[in-house]
Design a protein that fits this description.
The protein has 199 residues and is mainly beta. It is built from one helix and 13 strands.
Length: 199
């Protein structure tokens, strides 16, 4: 059974009472998983989200000053799919410096890196701290509806982390996921990696 999370609606944006997702998995590794917390909330026409990554070894690649640098850095990721088959889905990959790589895709691994999230539909901030890093953002409900991502008051969503193990142009990663993908090799771009966010 795939993971499910009920997104709360609040009057004031205070993260402390918001339900947390903490049950992340690294099915392709025997190493202990560094703790990570995800929260989501609907507030003032936006879906707000917060990642908190607890890890004392955060590696960020800063060589090309290019959005693709995110692919070589420790990062968190959100995928939003129009349907459970991932016929069309949208990806946000975000690192500890607040850099974003957004792109659209279709199954299987057909990527369009020229695509960007709808204008004025996304805001993002991030930072390093003593315990690791955090990434906070908001997506307008209008943009989610424009992309046809909300169905029956729910969204198909993937919540992930790529833990960077080596700081270099072509690093290796430990892949961490909310849902356990049905794959013997690391792969988030498959339908079984998705859970459901109930709005």
């Amino acid at each position: 059974m795939s993971a499910q999370y009920v997104v709360q609606t609040v009057e004031n944006l205070d993260w402390s009472p918001i339900n947390r997702i903490t049950n992340f998995h690294s099915p392709w590794s025997l190493n202990p998983i560094p703790p990570m917390v995800f929260r989501g909330v609907i507030y003032k026409h936006y879906f707000h989200f917060l990642f908190e990554v607890y890890d004392n070894d955060i590696l960020v690649y800063q060589e090309k000053d290019d959005p693709a640098d995110v692919l070589h850095s420790d990062r968190v990721e959100l995928f939003f799919a129009r349907d459970a088959a991932m016929n069309e889905y949208y990806c946000l990959e975000m690192d500890a410096l607040g850099r974003l790589l957004d792109y659209s895709a279709s199954y299987y691994r057909q990527f369009d890196y020229n695509w960007t999230w709808p204008e004025n539909g996304l805001a993002l901030s991030a930072g390093l701290n003593d315990s690791g890093y955090w990434v906070k953002g908001k997506l307008s409900l209008d943009s989610l509806k424009q992309l046809k991502l909300i169905h029956d008051n729910a969204m198909f969503c993937g919540i992930y982390r790529g833990k960077c193990l080596q700081k270099r142009l072509n690093p290796s990663f430990e892949w961490i996921s909310w849902n356990i993908p049905a794959s013997h090799q690391p792969d988030f771009h498959i339908p079984s990696s998705l859970g459901k966010l109930v709005l």
